[in-house]
Amino acid sequence: MNTITDVIEPGLLQRFTEIVGGANALRPEEAGERYLSEPRDLFHGRTALVLRPGSVEEVARIVALAAESRTPIVPQGGNTGLVGGQQPRSTREILVNLSRLDKIREIDRAGRTMTVDAGAVLQTIHEAAEAEGMFFPLSLGSKGSCQIGGNLSSNAGGTGALAYGTARDLCLGIEAVLPDGSMLNGLRRLKKDNRGYDLRHLLIGAEGTLGIITGAVLKLFPAPAGREVAYAGLRSAEDMLALLAIAERHAGMHLTAFEFLPRIGMEMTLKHTDGVRDPMADPHDWYVLLEVTSHRSVEEASETMEAVLTKAFEAGIVEDAAIAQSRRQADDFWRMREEMSWAQKPEGGSIKHDVSVPVASIPQFLAEAGEAVLSAVPGARPVPFGHLGDGNIHYNVSQPIGADKPEFLARYDEVNDLVHAVVRRFDGSFSAEHGIGVLKADELARTKAGPEYEAMRAIKRALDPYEIMNPGKVIKI
Ligand SMILES: Cc1cc2nc3c(=O)[nH]c(=O)nc-3n(C[C@H](O)[C@H](O)[C@H](O)COP(=O)(O)OP(=O)(O)OC[C@H]3O[C@@H](n4cnc5c(N)ncnc54)[C@H](O)[C@@H]3O)c2cc1C
What are its cofactors (predicted)? Predict the structure, then answer.
């Protein structure tokens, strides 16, 4: 039976419900999987109520009431986050889902900006930019469901970060409701604005712990005239690094993606994904997906890709390569990379990591992490892949063939500790782009202790003294 401390009394629930109207206030039993499960099945949400506000004003009223009544609230966007930050954890918490705030508010062609609601889906933003002959470079495998508010709150990285930076680099202005219900009206389009502390950068990457983002001004770029996508097959991680150096030298700013995949990941994707094909005739130990773009012409993109691959062949780095011959084939090449996360699911348990190390250390990191994992769990199958150009590796480990899934997953923390110890040896990060959420909050407290963590706590206490905004996520106060 619930005690007085773990439920919200009915009168208060009614007041929250009235803000959004009955049709947009869901009881937990009505909310179901869509709101209360998450992609990795690691967390199962518990909540008193799911609210779906339809305007910024409704968000502000919800937060003001939460502040007044000291009710914890959890912001949720597309619910694709991989660290549990968007999941409420008790029947004392209210989930605030932003999906109904999904408008593209304005496109400024001359200034190349787009002003959007926080609940706008990333794919919709891409399409709106494209319709105006421009492009928004943030791109993730989850782009069909994730929302810009979630992207900014998690400072998402993705495949465009190599050339254009992370979500933080792509945002000029933020509108948000702060934990006391007041509005931060920062929808500015200025590239230069040094009027004191930039609160935009506090809210970006805060994972909903410092306020609810309701709108943003995004930077747009001219759409490239030409795009070339290719796969290269290589024999070692050292060769992938050498290829990166050649690509950077010959393509410069035209190199817009440099992703890597291991053969085992390629095989899992081929086995478990409909409609994908091996891009090359023979298998290779490692694959790199390169993308080169040109704002000048199709020919320039094509010549640049040719130059990169020719140099790499001449240097004996690349075993084989395939250049996409059409837009459709280019999309298929990308699909192969993007499906890799899902293709590990049918292979049983998978212990995940989202780490970064200095780019030059990647080969040694892969060797040492592999050694550490296999000596603890013989037969485990590392599937490291990701954003090589950013030093960001999704060091996933699939269970040994035929192993018991719960038994393997029971070793999640142990395997994480082993891999993260290797990351520390290279002065890397145990959270490159997915954030901290609840999954990594203990590790952050343990490893960032000292003045940096204390400064983070002081900021949290100053803005959210009653800890109503996504409590227990990221930072422990
Ligand atoms: C197949 C797949 C591929 C992925 N690839 C990448 C990748 O390449 N790079 C990468 O960085 N991530 C990746 N992710 C993770 C995830 O998609 C990103 O973290 C994404 O930015 C989350 O957006 P969302 O709208 O789903 O946010 P949610 O999952 O709903 O929320 C994420 C966090 O942000 C907070 N939040 C959400 N909306 C708001 C708001 N409006 N105001 C304040 N706080 C808010 C939540 O409380 C939570 O802490 C991937 C996920 C999947 C499933």
Answer: FAD
